[in-house]
Sequence to fold (893 residues):
Amino acid sequence: MLLISCLNTAFALGSVQDDIQFAMQTGIDTVDNPNNLRPGASEGFIPVEIITDRNDTIPENDTTAVVEEQSFLPLSPDAPEAPIIYSAEDSIIYDILNNKIYLFGNAKMEHKNISLEADFIIYDWSINELTAEAKKDSLDNYIDFAKFSEAGNEYQARKIRYNFTSTRGKVYEARTQEGEGFIHGREVKKTTEDVWYGADAKYTTCNLDEPHFHIAVNRYKLIPEKVMVSGPANLVIADIPTPLYIPFGIFPVQDGRTSGIILPEYGETASQGFFLRNGGYYFALSDYFDLALRGDIYSRGSWGLRATSNYRLRYKFSGTFNTQFARTRLGDPILPESQVLNDFKVNWTHQQDQKARPNSNFSANVNFGTATYDQNYSVAPQQVLNNSFQSNISFRQSFPGRPFSFNANIRHDQSLTTNRVNLELPTLSFNVNRINPFQREGSGADRSWYENIGFSVNSDFKNVISGIDSTFFTQETFDNAQFGARFGVPISTSFNLFNYLNIEPSIQYNQRMYFETIEKTWDPTMVIIGEEAPLDTLDGRVITDTIPGIRAPADFSFSLSANTRLYGMFNFGDGNIKAIRHIFSPTLSFEYRPDFADPFWGYYREVQKNQEGDTELYSVFQSSSNLYGLPQQGEVAGLRLNLNNNIEMKVAAPRDTTRSDRNIKILERFNISTFYNFARDSVHLSPINMSAYTTLFERINLNASANFDPYIADPENINNRLDRFEWEENKRLARLTNANIGISSNFSADRMGSRQTDAGTEEERQMVYRNPELYADYNIPWSFGFGYNLNLTKGTTANPDSLLLTQSLTFNMDINVTPNWKLMVNSGYDFVNNELTYTTINITRDLHCWEMRITWVPYPAERQLYSIDINVKSAVLQDLKLSRRRDRFDAVF
Fold:
C-alpha cells in the first residue's frame, strides 16, 4: 500500500522538488538511483532518502552517492490529517509534473472512515482531491458503479469527485440506500456538514437498478440516517408518471422506528357511506416500546378506534398489547329498524426470556371481548368460527435444590354461545415434587420395595367469579363469588413380582376447604302460588340456609394394579415382509373408595321434599361444589381391566441399497377398558370403552373410539340402565351407544430453501414464525390438508334403535400457480346440512417490491366479503396502496 501523505509532504519541499525535476529531465532511472525519491512497488510505504550535508551535490552521472541517513520528512501543513492508502490491480502511474496519481483496474483508496472502490481513480495531491469513474464497455457505456462509503454510509455512482481537505464532494448518477429506501440522483453534492443535495432524484423501496416504481423529485436534501426532504414529488410506476402529486415530501431514512402520521384509506361502502379508514399516528416512544393509534370514521355514523403497542427488552421480556372498539350503525338512523352494534376486543401477550430468570417465569395471554367482534370484523376462519375466549396470566417460581414450586394464575373463560364468563381471580398453588423418604443413598436400581415409597403434595386456592357478560361487572356477580382450597397427597410405590409383573399400590388423600355450608329444612306452612296451583292451596317448601364458616371435608381412595407386557412374533422368512410383532399390555387394578354419603362422615344429609314425606339426599357443601367437586357418594370396590395392543410389521430393505429394514406401525394403539363394581347391588359392569390410533402410509392419521353398554336401556329414559344384559334380551354382547372416527392428513412438496432468514428485524421474524398462517410462503410449491370427522350416537328415548349421525369434512389447499402467484383455499362440507362450511379463498401475487392480496369469502351468504389490496412491501411507504373492500355490512357486492 502507498502512503500518499508522505509523498505529498516530500513534494512540498522545494529543494527536494528540484532534485526530482532534475532527475526527470536528465533521464536518471529512479529505480536504480537510491538518492532520489521513487515510487516503489504498487504497495508499501515511500521512504524519503535525505543527504545529511546539503552543501554536497550529486554529479549528474554519479549513481554511487552514499546515503548517510534515512528518515521520513515532516508533514506539510497542506497534507491530509491521516494517511491515504491506495492500491490497484492493473497499474499505477505517477505524474510527478502534474502532481497526480492514476490507478487502473479495481482501484481502491482509503482515508480515515472513507473508502472508495472504482475501475479508475485519479488523485491530485496538490489539492487533495480525487476523481473516480465506474467501469465502461467498448462502446464507452457504464456497466458498473463506483462505490464510495463514509462512516458506514455507502453510495454507488458512475462518477465521483471528493476533496479530502474540505470534505466536499460531487457524485454523478448516484444510488444509495438509506434505511429501507433507495435514492437515485443524477447529480448530488456533499457539503462540509455531511449533508447531501441532489437534483433529478428518485426515491423508491425497490432494490433494482431500474426500479418498478419511484417517487420523482427535482430537488432534495438528505441528512444521512435522519431524513430526506424534497420539493414537489410525483409517483411514477413502470416509468409512467401518474396523476398523483404531493407539494413536498418528508422521508425518514434512519434505521429503527420513527414517529409519524399513518395516512388513512379513503373510499365508499354501500351501507356505511364515505369513509376514512386505518388512519392515525405512530409514536416511536423509545427503543423499547411503541404505540400505534388508528381509527375509522364513516359518513353514516359508524366509527372505530384501535391501539397497538409492542414492547421488548432484549434478554428480558417482550410482548404486544392490542385493543379495538367498533361502533357500527346498520340501516338508516331515522328508520325504526336501524341497529347499532358496539363491539370491542382486547389482546395482550407477554413472554419472558428464559435466560432472564431461570427459576421463575411470568407470562400472559389475554383475550376477551364481545361475543360478536370476530364474527363481525374478522376474516380468518379460526377467529370467525371461534366460540370461546380464554385468558391466562401466570407466574411460576421454583427453588433450586429443593422440591418446591409455587404457581399463581389469573384465568378467564368466556363462552361466545352462552355469553357466560368465568374468572379465576386468582388461583394459587404450592406443590412438593415426589419425595422418597426411605430411599438410601447410592441404592441404584436394586432398591427394596419400601425404598420406592414416595409421596408428593398438591395444594391450591381458588376464587371464582361467574356471570353473564352483560351483567358481569355488577355487585351481585361479585357477591356470588366462590372461594375454596384443595390439598392432595398421592402416595405410591412399585415393585416387581416373579420378574414379570409390575405391582403398583397407591393411596390418594384429598382434603377440600369450603368457606360456607348449607342446611335444608322442610317448612310445611309455606304457600306456593303458581299457574298449576289454586290460590288457596297450602303446600310446603324446602328452605335453604347458608352458614358461614370453614369446613375441610376429607376423602381418600386406594388402588392396587398389576401390569405386564407380552410379545408375540410371527416370522415370514426371506420375503419382503420379514415379521409381524404383537405387543399385548394388560393391566388389572383393584380400586376401593368408601361411601362418603354415609352419615358417619357428615358430608350428606336427608331432607323432606314434599307433604307425602319423601326425602332427598343433599350435600352440605353443595353451594361450593363446582370449585373442587364433592366427596363422592356411593361405595366403590371393584376391578378395572385395561387391555392395550400394538402391532408392527418389519419390512426388508431393497436389495440394491444399503438401507436397513423398516418397522411399519400397523396399529399403534388399540385399547379396551371396563370396570366391575362389586359394591353395587345391581348393574355392576360399566360400559366398555374402545379406542384405536394408527398412522397409515406414514401420512394419514386415523383415530377411532366407541362405547358399548352390556345392559339394556330403560324404554322410558334411555340414559337409565336396567339390570338385564343385552344378551338376555337381544342376543348380543352389548349395544353401541356412541362412536367417533377421525381421519386427517397433510401433504406437501419439499420445501425449497430454509425457513431461516436474516431479512427484517428480529420482531418481524418472530411475528412470522409465530403466525405462519398470516403470510404466504413461496418456498412450498404446494400443500394440501384435510380432516374428516364422523360421530354417531345410538338411540333416543323415543326410538332406542335410531341413529344420530353427524359428519363433516374440512380441507385447506396452498398452491404456487407460478413462482409469483399463490392460491390458498380453506373450506369444508357439512354432510348433515348438505352445505359448505366457512370458506375463504386467498390469492397473493409477489410483485417484487409490491404485493397484491385478494381475499374472498363466498360462503356462508351472511358473511360474504371480498377485499383487494395492492401495496408496497416496505413499511416506509406502507401508505402507498390501493384497497377495495366489500363486507357483510354492505348490501351490494
The radius of gyration is 42 Å. Confidence is low (pLDDT under 50) at residues 1-73, 532-537.
